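Input (structure):
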């Protein structure tokens, strides 16, 4: 049964999981900035190893909505 860790997703786990999934990876600097800006993340850990992750991301800005 995995253990779930909130807001502890690190660069190494993020990169390893993306690589295993066959997804594109980005530079370490770019990735660390993106992880720091995440609103929320969760990592599933089994036997001391990250096996899954999820992230909630935002645009980094607030917009006002108008009705015309």
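Output (sequence):
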């Amino acid at each position: 049964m995995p253990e779930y860790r909130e807001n502890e997703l690190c660069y190494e786990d993020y990169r390893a999981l993306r690589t295993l999934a066959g997804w594109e990876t980005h530079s370490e600097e770019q990735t660390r900035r993106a992880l720091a800006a995440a609103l929320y993340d969760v990592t599933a850990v089994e036997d001391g190893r990250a096996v899954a992750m999820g992230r909630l991301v935002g645009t980094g800005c607030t917009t006002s909505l108008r009705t015309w």
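Notes: The mean pLDDT is 89. The chain has one domain: 3-56.
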